[in-house]
Amino acid sequence: MKMRGADAILRSLEAEGVEVMFGIPGGAIMPTYDAMARGTTVRHVLARHEQGAGHMAQGYARASGKVGVAIATSGPGATNLVTPIADAWMDSTPLVCITGQVRSTLIGTDAFQECDITGVTMPIVKHSWLVQSASEIPAVMKAAFHVARTGRCGPVLVDVPRDIQEAEFEYHYPERVELPGWKPPSKVHTLQVREAAKVIAHAERPVLYVGGGTLNADACSELLTLAEAGRLPVVTTLMGKGSFPESHELHFGWPGMHGPKWSNIAMNTCDVLVAIGSRFDDRVTGKLSAFAAGATIVHLDIDAAEISKLRKADIPVVGPLKQAVQELAREVGRHRAEGAPAPAAWLERLAELRETYPLRYGTSTDWIKPQWLLEQLQAVCAGEDVIVTTGVGQHQMWAMQYILSEKPRTFITSGGLGTMGFGIPAAVGAKAARPEATVICIDGDGCFQMTAQELVTAVLEDLPIVVVLVNNGYLGMVQQWQDMFFDGRRSHVHLTSAVPDYAKLAEAYGGVGMTVTEPDEVRPALEEAIRLGRTVVVDVRTDPSEQCFPMIPAGAAALDMVEYTDPTEVAT
Amino acid sequence: VKHTISVTVEDKPGALTRITTMFARRGFNIDSLAVGPTERPGVSCITLRVDCEQHSLEQIEKQIHKLVNTLRVTELVPGEAVERELMVIKVNTAPERRAELIATTNAFGGRVLDLGADAVVLEITGTPEELDSFHELCRPYGIQESVRTGRIGLSRASSAKRQGRRRLAAIN
User: What's the whole-model pTM score?
Assistant: First the structure.
């Protein structure tokens, strides 16, 4: 069928089963937006900033397990997508970004709104295409979706010059992908799995260290089977949160910089550490040379380049995690049936540690404590179909500690890149993926102001979200570092909690605003916000001096963590 | 430790840039780089000389392998592969020492590309080590300029089943 390049882009999206895309039009992408006006089955959500569109596509992808699609114009539209692309790269989120480009005859001439976006994004995409002719579009789109979602998931970029969107050609969507160089592992070495199972089943102190790869691989039920078959304790990373039910007796928290003490003791005193779709990130390991010293490392990952990148794997298992974890569960179960004892003493000790070192925070009632706020939110949300997104900073770490994620794809946060402002647009995207769920963005006041304009998108696109603003008036995490590591010199971290007036801002954007200053207002406000089913900002004024503990100082060994000390306790 | 990595890639826009960008981004250094077509239409070979530890070499190989345009990554194993490089060098020669320099060039199997009043341009092909020693021999004359192509190589015809190439083990 004869059609224009712009129509071919949309027909390709439809052929890939895309339900929704997030974007903003502009000069170089106008032919494609014109094609949208002429009709497509793909819903377009109009963001207010391309960064917002990108994070929405990420939130959509993370909540749904499908590929997120963001679309923008050339130049500034494209560069505004760079942060979401980098974020998706770090957190392995499948993302297809489509950008308009200046006419091919103008490329290289510094034309209006020209930017070499394939060049700019080269280090942070799995692959990118600068389309050379309209007839390439179907094969490029097919390849883009294939690359984004196969192997280790991640972002790709398709840059389409305006004249190519306008050019006519004979459209045919290919059945198969022609990428001779793209061969992600499709199977698992059975011998490696057996070797791993033997070591795990006979370990005295095993720990499963589970990351976001498990969610991407849809290997969560297999993980549950593995943990239960082997009676193996599970520690989930920030990115892996939700891959294992957190109220389960075998769940032992979250590792790393702000993980509970018991989680880090588990990780660092184990004798066999089983990394599943996790990557030994510095925020997890602390000082690498001291991390899990002496432990045998089993590493399961789809990406061979992660094996022994930071910590040498004694037993690597490269391949699709769903299959790998399933086979591992079967093999470990077999060893248990043949008499390899479950690590009962170890589980008992971990349970004791959990009792001995609970998360602690101040009991002063002068202020609403942010941790207490999140405990209230957890109580309100327990058992409900809730997706939580966050920004980045103290509130994010408290969310990790106090919100229990029971189901996959219900906790969506920016882990690797640590992108402030991720929460609100990611929540909008998650709502588009799961309209039946209540989507709550736990945000900080610093983060909120980076992407607040997307509240408009939530309101006008009927994608209501609840923002619970942990408002301490500071760039809290930076303040905490200044207090702990820079002799308390506060340098440009004070935002004030009252300007802007967040509740009024919410109303200006067409939503509902609430300001909460008293503890007894918290529960009613949260319940009301969720009940309304509208876009709501609950501005909760919290203790500006509260710090996030425990904390492993950057570069310190995990077991040298700094714990909360009650200032009212008398030293003896 | 120096290693020679041979990468075959689809001849697509950006294929080379993606590899060099990856080196820059991950903090690896390239000693030399040679790019050219192969026996297969649409397939290019990139030969990289890198100075790194074994651990980094594995990372480099795996990261290159992940690039969508990469068809094959192998290391050319010293002794099991033949490696060649070409150098063009402009050397000062007073007329009375010219014959001596040309004799040295001949001994290295080189050629004279151009003769000037007080300088010659010479071409030498050989192993990179031979080029190094020829370069040293020219030094007393005074080297005006020299350029090298960077090494390229293939596994030996005599080595059984491509022993001259070590394929990446960890990739299925």
Answer: 0.96
